[in-house]
Design a protein that fits this description.
Blueprint (H helix, E strand, L loop, with lengths): L4 H20 L3 E15 L8 E15 L2 E15 L9 E20 L7 E20 L18 E12 L4 E10 L17 E12 L1
Antiparallel strand pairs: 1-2, 1-8, 2-3, 3-4, 4-5, 5-6, 6-7, 7-8
Length: 212
Amino acid sequence: MSTFHYPMIFALLFLLPNTAQSQRTQRFKAGIIAGLTASQIDGDESAGYHKVGLQAGLRGVVRLKKKQDASVEILYTQRGCRHQPQTFPLFSTTLNYIEVPVQWHYHDWLADGDENDGFYRVQFNAGLSYGRLLDYKDKYGLDGGGITAALPDLNSNSFTVLLGATFYASRHIGFTFRWQRALNNLYNTGEGGNYAKDLNEHFIAFQALYMF
């Protein structure tokens, strides 16, 4: 064997343990999110989280210190409103958003060993999110009720506060419940159109999460 290879072998032997250690305590992580939303708009003609939509996107995480992380997500989120079952008038409006939540996470319930070798089963999170309205779909149009009259004058920018919790079934797979409420109105009375009420969004999300 050439003497050129000996330094390389010793370097690899030295780096392998450090690589394994860095994987256990890695500071940056990434994940994939997919789930469903249930939405409501205060000021429409219904009450309750009757509008079901889709949510999917990516998460990036940085470890701050023991038990604490920060994350940024990029999500496609469907929100909106819908009539209550078996009630009139009929309406169903889907609002399509690109959303960027920024969150702080706190971990608890250590599983399988110490902090380096194991993982935490429960995670609580809080944060803020910016959403940009891409477009909307109004199922019944002028033949229905709901917020149809306000649609041409909706606010394209949405700022929400969020709270949530995640249960990790394994190191990589988690399930999240999240509540979000808008800090600004989707529509303000008198700002164009002829809709008579202010509109404010809130919704809950049920997510499945895979962390690499």
